[in-house]
């Protein structure tokens, strides 16, 4: 199949990219691993940050300052400034598409407080903001003619003489490998916090597939050590209780009712405070009881539902036990300010990309904004590239190779249990590469990841059915997760300091020489990875020159 632009990922960034590529008059396909409304964007419930014209107390420079401060000297100023100044337009666009943001009695959009912000700037729809935005964008994409392919798993990037030619895909309904050709490609497939299986707020589909694919295609990964833990999730399931709860005034207390921390500090500091309190023998809770039923039902209905269904707790009258869980990843595929990547005509956006906005620690409310702003930018630039570009031949030897790979998993004899191995990976990452880490814990984690890698070749399907084989998907995802996990641990070992969400007990202070310095992972021959450190402006003069003379 031939498409001018292919977008992989159906969260806010992917939907925005597909929509704007389509508005350029091009033939656009959107590829989704599962159903489009199951993305992490759909469960980003708290809100989306923006500086609004009607808000007199907030300024762009204050939002930029808060974001840069949270990034802990790793934020890329140019991308932060572009995103923040574009936030007003994003909210206006979403409202015009039908996103019904909550409003005050004067008809102005309501904004709530989020951690680490000097002003109330988080726009919201109760505590289901992400779901409302995602549903609206999905409906708009269908209305405007984007071709949507649910239940298709991307396997690899196809190239011809180092030029993009398309992608290979596993069609889940019959386990067939197919190829789609395209002139430009947008990768928007989400982050990798789901590799902390059993200790993550992410959906089960979150396995970092696109990052593993990018690494195999010799693209750079950046700052993989920065995994943000959300401080308030249900202790047994990892279900997210949105930051909206604390923004509306819920307390964090221990079993004695003591408020031992500042609920509205940044997520990295709050998570560490909670874990330290737990290590001291305390149980930690969210306390909603003083908020009252009217406020909870109006602004926090999802929190009440999740607490009741996930923990059997009525937050009107009971304390809700919580713990930090892996939630968001600041690392990702290297990209420029315009979302272009290491390979011409491939653009990256959303959580799978390293845009430089979040640095070492994301500010709450900025993820949906980043996804929307850079998704739109990626769609516009991918469309421009496609108009200038041409189709390149698909190497069907690569398609045949992928088909043999799938056949081996389907037909081979399985020697290990995939569910046990995925759970074990999640447990070791949470214990050894969690809120606190040091050289010994990281070395233990890396050793175990290599152990799992050796045994992952013995994972094959017990169920040989070709129609919607969940086991086949799980094995592919798990092997991708191991690649990503190795990158996370190696990056964490290399960064011998504490910065943002990366806290090393053996290096508890930040090192000034690492300000604005990124950890870069490259794949060499075979499975060998190389780590280096580079500043934001260390490369790219050749690309800038080509762009200046309109070669790109």
- Extended strand count: 19
Tell me the number of helical segments per DSSP (H or I, 4 or more residues long).
16
CA-based gyration radius: 22 Å
Second CATH tier, the architecture of the domain at 397-508: Up-down Bundle
| Unreliable stretches covering 5 or more consecutive residues | none
Can you give the mean pLDDT?
Answer: 94
Helix coverage percent of residues?
A: 25-40%
- Measured by DSSP, the beta-strand proportion falls in 15-25%
- The end-to-end distance, rounded to whole angstroms, is 25 Å
CATH class of the domain at 397-508: Mainly Alpha
Q: Which oligomerization state do the chains in this entry correspond to?
A: single chain
Identify the overall geometry. Answer: globular
Major sheet description: 7 strands, mixed
CATH topology of the domain at 397-508: Methane Monooxygenase Hydroxylase, Chain G, domain 1
Q: Structural class per helix/strand content?
A: alpha/beta
**What is the H level of CATH, i.e. the homologous superfamily of the domain at 397-508?**
Fumarate reductase/succinate dehydrogenase flavoprotein-like, C-terminal domain
Gist of the model:
The chain is an alpha/beta fold and 552 residues long.
What does this structure look like?
It is a single chain. This protein is an alpha/beta fold and 552 residues long. Among the domains are: 94 residues, Flavocytochrome C3, Chain A, domain 1, CATH 3.90.700.10; 112 residues, Methane Monooxygenase Hydroxylase, Chain G, domain 1 (Up-down Bundle). Helix content is 38%, strand content 18%. The strands form four sheets. Strands 1, 2, 6, 7, 8, 9 and 16 form a seven-stranded mixed β-sheet that branches. Strands 17-15-10-18-19 form a five-stranded mixed β-sheet. A four-stranded antiparallel β-sheet has the order 11-14-13-12. β8 and β9 form a beta hairpin. The longest helix has 25 residues. The chain starts with a strand and ends with a helix.
């Amino acid at each position: 199949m031939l498409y001018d632009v292919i977008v992989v990922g159906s969260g806010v960034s992917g939907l925005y990219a597909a929509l704007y590529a389509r508005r350029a008059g091009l033939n656009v396909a959107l590829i989704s691993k599962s159903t489009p409304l199951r993305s992490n964007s759909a469960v980003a419930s708290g809100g989306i940050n923006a500086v609004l014209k009607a808000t007199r107390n907030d300024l762009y420079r204050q939002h930029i300052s808060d974001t840069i401060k949270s990034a802990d000297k790793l934020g890329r100023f140019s991308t932060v400034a572009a995103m923040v100044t574009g936030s007003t337009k994003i909210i206006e666009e979403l409202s015009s598409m039908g996103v019904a943001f909550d409003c005050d009695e004067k008809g102005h959009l309501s904004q709530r407080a989020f951690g680490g912000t000097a002003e109330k700037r988080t726009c919201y729809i109760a505590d289901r903001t992400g779901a409302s935005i995602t549903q609206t964008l999905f409906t708009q994409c269908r209305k405007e003619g984007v071709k949507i392919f649910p239940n298709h798993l991307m396997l690899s990037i196809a190239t011809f003489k180092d030029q993009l030619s398309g992608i290979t895909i596993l069609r889940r309904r019959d386990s067939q490998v197919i190829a789609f050709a395209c002139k430009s490609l947008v990768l928007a497939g989400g982050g990798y916090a789901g590799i902390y299986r059993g200790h993550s707020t992410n959906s089960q589909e979150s396995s970092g597939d696109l990052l593993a694919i990018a690494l195999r295609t010799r693209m750079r990964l950046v700052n993989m050590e920065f995994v943000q833990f959300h401080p308030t999730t249900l202790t047994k399931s990892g279900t997210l209780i949105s930051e909206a709860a604390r923004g509306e005034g819920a307390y964090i207390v221990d079993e004695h009712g003591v408020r031992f921390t500042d609920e509205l500090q940044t997520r990295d500091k709050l998570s560490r405070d909670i874990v330290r309190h737990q290590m001291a023998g305390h149980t930690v809770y969210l306390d909603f009881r003083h908020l009252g039923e009217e406020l909870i039902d109006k602004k926090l209905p999802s929190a009440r539902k999740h607490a009741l269904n996930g923990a059997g707790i009525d937050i009107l009258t009971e304390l809700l036990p919580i713990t930090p869980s892996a939630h968001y990843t600041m690392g990702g595929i290297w990209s420029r300010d315009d979302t272009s990547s290491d390979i011409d005509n491939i653009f990256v956006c959303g959580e799978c990309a390293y845009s430089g906005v979040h640095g070492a620690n994301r500010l709450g409310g900025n993820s949906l904004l980043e996804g929307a702003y850079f998704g739109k930018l990626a769609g516009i630039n991918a469309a421009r590239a496609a108009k200038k570009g041409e189709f390149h031949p698909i190497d069907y030897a690569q398609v045949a190779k992928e088909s043999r790979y799938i056949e081996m998993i389907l037909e081979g004899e399985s020697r290990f249990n995939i569910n046990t191995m995925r759970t074990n990976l999640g447990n070791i990452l949470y214990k050894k590469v969690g809120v606190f880490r040091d050289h010994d814990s990281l070395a233990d984690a890396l050793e175990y990841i290599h152990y799992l890698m050796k045994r992952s070749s013995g994972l094959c399907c017990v169920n040989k059915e070709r129609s919607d084989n969940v086991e086949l998907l799980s094995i592919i995802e798990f092997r991708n997760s191991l690649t990503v996990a190795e990158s996370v641990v190696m990056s964490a070992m290399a960064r011998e300091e504490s910065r943002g969400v990366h806290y090393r007990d053996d290096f508890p202070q930040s090192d000034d020489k690492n300000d604005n310095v990124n950890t870069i992972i490259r794949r060499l021959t075979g499975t060998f990875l190389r780590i280096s450190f580079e500043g934001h402006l260390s490369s790219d003069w050749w690309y800038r020159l080509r762009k200046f003379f309109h070669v790109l």
